Amino acid sequence: ADLVLGSATEPSAIDPQFSRTGNNQNIAMQIFDRLVQTDAAINVEPALAVSWTNVDPLTWHVKLREGVKFHDGNPLTAEDVIFSLTRAKDIPNSPAPFSGNVASIDSMKALDNQTIEFKTKKPTPDFMEQIGFVYIVEKKVAEGASIEDFNSGKAAIGTGAYRFKSWTPGDNLVLTRNDDFWGKKQDFDNVTIKFISNDASRVAALRSGAVDLIDAVPPGDVKTIEGISGLKVFSIASARMIYLALDSARDKSPFITDKDGKPLDKNPLKDVKVRTALSELINRQLIIDRILDGSAEPAGQLVPTGVAGNDPSIAAPAFNADNAKKLLAEAGYKDGFGITIHTSNDRFPGDAEVAQALGQMFARGGLKVNGVVAQPYNVYTKGASAGEFSAFIFSLGNSTPTSATGLRNLLMTANKEAGTGSFNRVKYSNPAFDEMMRTATAEFDAKKRVELLQKATKAVFADVPVIPLYWQKVHWAGKANLSYIANMTEDTSATLAGLAE
Amino acid sequence: MTVFVIRRFLQSIAVLLVTAIIVFIGIYAIGDPIEMLISPDASPAERAQVITSLGLDKPLWQQFLTFAWNALHGDLGRSFVFNRPSISLIFERLPATLELTLTGLVFALVLGIPLGLLSGLKPNSATDEAIMTGSIFGFSLPSFWQGMMLIMIFSVWLGWLPSTGRGQMGEFLGIRSSLFTLDGLAHLILPAINLSLFKLSLVIRLTRTGVRETLPLDFVKFARAKGLSEKRIVFVHVFKSILIPLITVVGLELGSMLAFAVVTETIFAWPGIGKLLIDSIMRLDRPVVVAYLLVIVSLFIFINFVVDILYSLVDPRVRLGDAQ
Amino acid sequence: MTPILEVKNLSTHFMTRRGVLKAVDDVSFAVGQREIVGLVGESGSGKSITGFSVLGLVDPPGRVVSGQILFKGEDLLKLSPAAMRTIRGKRIAMIFQDPMMTLNPVLSVATQMIETVQAHDRVSRAEARARSRDALGLVGIPSPEERLDAYPHQFSGGMRQRVAIAIALLHRPDLIIADEPTTALDVTIQSQILFEIKRLAAEFAMALIWISHDLGVVAALADRVMVMYAGKIVEAGQVDGVLTEPRHPYTSGLLSAVPAAVPRGEPLRPIPGFAPSPLSRPSGCAFRDRCGRATEICATEPMLEVAAGREFRCFHPHFRSAA
Amino acid sequence: MNARVSSFRDDTLFGRLVMGIAESPKTVIAAIVCIILLFAAIVGPYLTPQDPYDLAVLDILDSKLPPGSESMDGLIYWLGTDGQGRDMFSAMIYGLRTSLGVGVFSGVVALVVGTVLGLIAAYFGGRIDALIMRIVDLMLGFPTILVALMLLALLGQGLWKVIFALILVQWATFARAVRSAALVEKNKDYVEAAVTLGISTPRILIGHILPNCLPPLIVIGTLQVAHAISAEATLSFLGIGLPITEPSLGLLIANGYQLLMSGEYWISVYPGLLLLVLVFSINMVGDRLREVLNPRLGER
Amino acid sequence: MTPLVEAIDVSRRFSRKLDYAEKIANLFGAGLEEKTVHAVDEVDLAVHPGEVVGLVGESGCGKSTLGRVMAGIMPASGGEVRWNGKPLTSLEGEEKRSMRLSAQMIFQDPMSTLNPRKRVIDLIGEAPRVHGIVKGREVRDYVASLAERVGLDASYLDRYPHQFSGGQRQRIGIARALAVKPKLLVCDESVAALDVSIQAQILNLFMDLKREFGLTYLFISHDLGVVKHICDRVVVMYLGRVVESATPDELFDDPKHPYTQALIRELPTVADRHRIFTPIKGEIPSPLHPPPGCHFHPRCPKAFDRCRVERPVLKQNAVGHVSACHLNDPTASETKNVTAEPAN
Ligand SMILES: Nc1ncnc2c1ncn2[C@@H]1O[C@H](COP(=O)(O)OP(=O)(O)OP(=O)(O)O)[C@@H](O)[C@H]1O
Ligand SMILES: Nc1ncnc2c1ncn2[C@@H]1O[C@H](COP(=O)(O)OP(=O)(O)OP(=O)(O)O)[C@@H](O)[C@H]1O
Ligand SMILES: [Mg+2]
Ligand SMILES: [Mg+2]
After folding, report:
1. Is C14 in the pocket of ligand 1 (CB under 6 A)?
2. How many Cβ atoms are within 10 Å of E213's Cβ, its own excluded?
3. Pairing status of strand A391-397 against strand A338-344
4. What is the pLDDT of residues D220-252, one digit of tens each?
5. Does B269 touch chain A (CB under 8 A)?
6. Spatial distance between the Cα atoms of D122 and C252, rounded to a whole number of angstroms
7. D72–chain A nearest CA distance, Å
8. What's the CATH architecture for D14-57+66-299?
9. What ipTM is given for this predicted complex?
10. Per DSSP, what are the bridge partners of residue A195?
11. Residue A362 falls in which region: left (phi positive, over 0), alpha (psi -120 to 50) or beta
């Protein structure tokens, strides 16, 4: 059988190490493999590596899978892996390099054809989660190959479930089944991935039968598609948290005014009571039902249930207008204050609508909403990063097996040298939390690490560093005779599709 | 001649220079490419690495000078996103857009001129009313809406025509194009219609107006007095007189169709430069945007150059160098 | 002699917003074979419109409202458009008054001539071109072969006029309606054209309606002359008669207005007063306000009097004794 | 004599226009529709049951209600509500205001600017022509989206910025169209006659040449108004147009069009119809004006 | 006395420059060349205040062009035009504007010089209004009175040009020129399209204006009868050059140049009925390739060898009578009988 897949995104290159962004990885994961991979709930599974052991805090032994062959028939060797991991950090002009993934490697040595010994610069408990996600290319082929060689297919030789056949940028990518694949045999002989970025067009393409399966189904269309016989929707709540960031660190905030719209020289958002109040003014379920057509789960922390680091004891804050008003009054803002909500409008489904709904809810809660400003992401991020906004909506997708990376990037104090807080746009700083995170990430024992992360999560969200809104649900839709593994990492890949029994 | 070409050429260089400067400043003003490129969980170190490797750490003027110097040597830079020469990205996709645009334009002309003539020759008749009313639909609704309707009607409900992508390509005289296969043509129809509806209305209306304005002129009467057939009067005497506005508009519209095929290409997932452009703008892929604009502006300059030549061919009174 | 063109009671009116403008009002005349008829008269009296009416080329809002136009016995007003087309340019040709506006500015002279040839005769382009060139030569355009490819605006007014004449001559029609064709020409060229026209008219048995203000030209060229005033023909007859012994006071007024009628430098003697506005013409003789001989009776419509080859509409005509 | 003169006093240009429109019944209807819509746009805020721009009066509980539904507080939504619970009728009247403002204003300003520059380019030729036309080349090459985005980034969001962006991208079209027509006209003898009479160049350009360039200009102009309205819609659709809390007709259409297929037709269809009617009547009137302005055609 | 306007050695060439397309064609060897028409070729002509100078000549010989150049509408390509003794090119500002208004032209082709989208009231009234000759409210009366003078009914003022007959249009042109109260009127075939009565009326008007306001005329016409009647001096042009100039009496009684002689011979009059025309034989030369020597020689019955090579200069034959013909050159007169070709 053949599969025609309509995808919202398209890759910028076939070289799997060129860019770490999702659109490239979606393609790479079908042609290439990594040492480890994740399942639908982002749990680590062995892939090209079958086992790994931590000999001492600085030494790791990784055992490769036997009998794995590249598409050109050559067997996978330790040399290929070492080459790939070396290559990962010096891809010229890579916009999103894998260099962070291999940054902790001090040295690599092939113990035999199937075993590699790694030395790290410092103890790295999540070492496998770092190097494990780098795609492995064949040394003989990739050495000296240019990006064009990959794009044309000459160097696009991997160990993955599908072989690369052709790529017409902007139009489609064609794959054929790799019959020598080490893993589960794929159901499809040929796979064509059509790039259809417009949501409505993608849905129309499915409905007209031009494609068999589509990704990123707009929430508003889910019901309609479900109602069409012969079509089916595959959904999952992803690990992407949508949140409202609050400018809580500065003494004055640009878009905070008094009731009359005059700038306020105090910043109410510094007060945790105010932040809690804002959070409680939001009726998350209502937003989910009305704006997102049910396509989300209310969130009260970074990662959803099922992802390591989630603390089941933290519930999504309940809508409680009375308490919120009380809190506001306690903080000295009985009559509220003026606020402007900023948002992107092309980043994730419903971003602008959600912002408006938040505006409505704040207004009902007694705040003066001076405006809801929606901008395209490219303009928006600049303002957001530059601290030009007071309250703004962002999302953070967690694609790693634990919440550690997300917490580190989003909530730890911004510090270039330490590499923490790289997306901490509001410059939130909580030394106690930082310390808890440091201990957690240094912990080798997996179970303990998760517990420490939960503790840190609990501590930090009590301070409302950002207001978590919901975890977005993602949907795929396809013909009824297909199956698809909906996954939290939002991957679209033919390897996840199959013929339904 | 040489003087003229040199003059135009120098002017064009100036225009292109200004274009490049505007884009540089514009993109700089819009946002930071790094934010758009970097993966969501990148570390500060990775970030710094990317900034240096793309040369974004240098001051803007320095980036511009580097660009200008390379441009002089025929290198318009490499795409941030694709890491490929931006010019080759553009030329790779230009054929698809050209194919779409030219088909749309031909469609607009082949249908628009006869309809315009028909309605201009029989003003206020039922035919005229029908054509004029119909043509209003061509431009009163935004084209993304029209495009969606076309897809809904012809692909989803009727199932007659494919709605996405470019279809199979055939080769003819060494040119690869989807015009040469049935499947390719089928894929082309809807987007071409979508793209041409506005121009179609414009052509109809301009033609009609031209006819209405020209018919009462004395030379038409004289042509009648010579016993010319109505056909010749309409197709030679009247038609040639209305060519100037038509040529202008066709020139303008050819360019703007090329430049603004964005919406159509997005909706119909047509792998052309419009789509590339909007993606590049949205991702702030400056080298591609600059190269694209340089190409399109050059194209406009060229089209306008051709249009100027056509003026003097069509109307001998234009550009008559009368003083010595 | 059977007339080649016979116009009976022709009226052409313009339905303007401000009322009906009777540009041609109950006009009857006939043109015999090979006959050259001069048509003179007040500017704005309807001479051109009469010509257009014959060819069925009156622009809206104008319309031939009544009458008959018999060309070789056939009523042109009843012909189908297709049949009319075979007559226009081929059997009846017209030379328009305003030479700049009659040639299409965006087509070369060659195109405009060749198409005229080919509209009626199945001939090759080369032959059509040769004929066009000969016609241009006939009207005295220097180096016709070269000038053929020029565009109208590259010609002087007189040359354009000659091109228009050449186009009319292309098919050697039975009748040419020439609307002031030589006004823009100098006398030497005019002579040449008049000479050629006269020769061609004789040679190809063409009849001619020659609309002109130049009484001298009409006198020299025409066999018969008709005088129009305010939409009506007020006098008609042999040239010798009308121009020597005018019956109608308007005709005599015209004759005494020519510069030659007074000594050099003296004030000329125009007819006093104005022609009435064609929208609000008084009933009766339209000339009566300007006429020294007018009496009460002129308020009624004067009948056409026909006597000895002369026709006129006047209650008080000049006679030899009276002049 | 004077009596006769004064009896034609009604025959002014304005009189002609009014008469010309009055003579064609369908144009009368179109003109009336135009006026009604204009009126609705102007007094909109007093007509609507709801202020659709005020977030405090909206309620998402009322979102996507079909036409005729009753709101929580008893108001009937005759045309339904949009995704934010806005009364569609109110939103459309407000949106009409914005769309008309954007379309007509940007169209008219672009027309004026483009016309003046086009005339100047054609009339003076040479360097001035080259300069203006090269700027035109440049402007034509710049995609609306990029211009709008740059302005958004430089000036921030808002109605005037969108209008400004649309003016920037539209004037070049007019300039080029006018220039082409004026190139033909300027060689005509009446221009020479006017020069002889010592009439100043601006007067010749505006008073003599321009009227003869009008026919294609009116066609392009009326179309361009429609185009500006949809361009604004497209910009809003792409997220670089007007503030989302103050939707224009185009934005309403854009917001609703994805929902068309899921049966929530009213969010897109009603504003679409209104836009259609608006553009339709503007064009009817424009077409008629052009005919009336031509002395050879108007006299009927 | 300084002439009101004076042309000194004025030339006007029209070169049809090749356009791009033709130039590109030439790159492929099309061999198109630039064509130059010498519409006016080294002409000297002075017009004194209050004088009526008639300009006659063959069609296409450059009369309109000379008229335009002298009225300051068209720049000369060679030589100099002086207005009240001052070179036109040296005039600036207010002086230039007032000169511009003082020299008016009535164009040959009435329809094309009337803006088709303006009504008569505006066509005539615009210039006086913008120049402050009349005030806004009085324009209509002013225009009406002008219209009346040229014999147009005041009820026509709100009409558009295409609604007029040829003669009526011509009168609009006349009224328009008169409206700015000029000093010099260049009348290009201004009365040709008029019936004789109106023509008489207009000519009377011209003469009245001359008498009342000292108006000066350059009167271009084919109608020798009219020229003879109103002009103080007649200038005959042939193919861009002046070939003869004299008072009407002199000229009509004793034309010196063979072309003038032909003109006068061919002049039709009412008295001459059914005449046989005897056109001048010979090829009419093209202004693109003017013949060498005397331009008239190919058509001249009396041409001889010298005429084919040497350009005759204007020589005085009598007081105020000049002509450019080798026959009138005393040195050549002996040879003339010898070499004169048999008249054909
Ligand atoms: N299109 C028109 N609309 C209204 N009236 C018109 C139109 N064309 C001509 N007329 C009027 O019809 C009358 C006759 O015009 P016509 O052109 O026949 O005059 P004419 O005798 O040829 O005059 P001339 O010798 O000046 O050319 C004039 O009063 C003129 O104003
Ligand atoms: N704009 C122009 N471009 C090229 N040639 C021109 C132009 N205007 C006039 N000519 C040429 O210049 C010559 C003189 O033209 P002009 O109009 O002055 O003649 P004219 O004496 O007025 O003739 P007519 O009596 O026929 O009006 C002609 O050969 C004409 O072809
Ligand atoms: Mg006439
Ligand atoms: Mg002339």
Report:
1. yes
2. 12
3. parallel
4. 787 788 778 878 877 777 777 777 778 888 888
5. yes
6. 53
7. 15
8. Orthogonal Bundle (1.10)
9. 0.78
10. A7
11. alpha
